[in-house]
């Protein structure tokens, strides 16, 4: 039998799977004769690691078996280019002049990032006119992002309220700009930004309830706007708004979904979300579409609003298949996450995929004794932290965080990089003692308010190679806000009513 070749650890790891190996031809035999079948280490000639250009180290085990040695595609080239641009930073060969922490990694640049986010809220240069419809997003990313760095954001309250007042439509909901139709994403972003500054009094809750009734669909899902696409973002955005504002779950009398027999915003919703899971395990924006990590977050967070995660997630999703898919989104060598298979690492998925692990770990059968240290769990937290600190931070005076080194920083990537850091650094768990429904009063769904978090310990921060000043605040895994802000919204609307 052939001896194990001079080691490629990745391949050795991959080929532990004995059943598959036994069917493979002996790679020592050029003619691939099948005479010796008891344990050759490599699956056929095309993956022999001796040849210089075989098996680039950044190809992970999930992709490894799929490529022929000569197969070059735009995807393989883009993956190689991204690995090459990140490696000098990951290895600290190039530290970009950033101040280093006691473990040799760049410090989290708190002050420059906070300044960057503050700057994004001022007057913007002309090219930003194209982003007019995304203004509420900018408010949310930049205000919430600052709060994740423990900046006081209450000073934004009056200005934010006056800025979003004209974006609210008389029929309910918020548009992206003055005179624009209401849209679930703009409404979600506005409500989150207002929650961050405790400014929800500006929202017309009754009109909001009516408008949300018009986007609820007969099949259980939600459209993004009247006549717009029905997708999982709509479901998560709508249920977030309903829960934070404590709107009645009962559909308004004029909701078109009532004609199909639905009575509540939650009717058929879990089933509709379940239909978005594909054979790969990931979650698509709508049934039968392509899966994406950002949609996995929307699905898990929406289910975590509907009920306790260990109840609602396994009720509608194949948890094992989804976990496997999520784990395969962590890229090597970068250590960050990609949004979909064979695509590139991008810091924003530190949140969209990273927070999925927080939610799905709470869905495991025995929530109480799951992973108890930051080193344990289903994903490599130290690798994500390393990617964000070495590749994700813009050097120089400007600050801000970015998708990858070749891109510019922006509010979106800064906010979601910081949220991803929180998922990696802290403990989040679901308190199974909390009630999931305000049965004595308003009927509000309470599951999403039962999340608790504790800061990672000093020992854990050491294992993640961060110092105290590189640690972000605790971020709520469902609402992506500081816990204090979520609690204030819960209390403000405790009584219900419109
Ligand atoms: C592909 O972009 C991205 C998607 C298909 C989904 C994006 C959705 C979100 C980021 C968030 C939605 C959530 C809410 C709450 C509105 P791409 O092709 O540029 O990126 P990729 O190559 O990384 O997939
Ligand atoms: K992208
Ligand atoms: Zn991104």
UniProtKB/TrEMBL annotation:
Spell out the molecular function terms from Gene Ontology. Answer: protein farnesyltransferase activity; zinc ion binding
Q: Where is this region: Disordered?
A: 1-54
| Ranges annotated as biased composition (Basic and acidic residues) | 13-23
Q: Does the keyword Transferase apply?
A: yes
Q: Name one GO biological process term.
A: prenylation
Mark out the compositionally biased spans (Acidic residues).
1-12
Q: Which residues form the Prenyltransferase alpha-alpha toroid domain?
A: 108-462
Please write the reaction equations for the catalytic activity of this protein: L-cysteinyl-[protein] + (2E,6E)-farnesyl diphosphate = S-(2E,6E)-farnesyl-L-cysteinyl-[protein] + diphosphate
Per UniProt, the keywords (alphabetical) are: Metal-binding, Prenyltransferase, Repeat, Transferase, Zinc
User: Matching CDD domains, A to Z?
Assistant: FTase (cd02893)
Keyword Nucleotide-binding assigned to the entry: answer is no
Task: List, alphabetically, the Gene3D superfamilies matched.
Answer: 1.50.10.20
Q: What is this enzyme's EC?
A: 2.5.1.58
| Cofactor remark from the record | Binds 1 zinc ion per subunit.
Report the protein's function: Catalyzes the transfer of a farnesyl moiety from farnesyl diphosphate to a cysteine at the fourth position from the C-terminus of several proteins. The beta subunit is responsible for peptide-binding.
Q: Kindly state the subunit structure of this protein.
A: Heterodimer of an alpha and a beta subunit.
Tell me which family the UniProt entry assigns to this protein: Belongs to the protein prenyltransferase subunit beta family.
Name the chain's protein. Answer: Protein farnesyltransferase subunit beta
Annotated organism of origin: Friedmanniomyces simplex
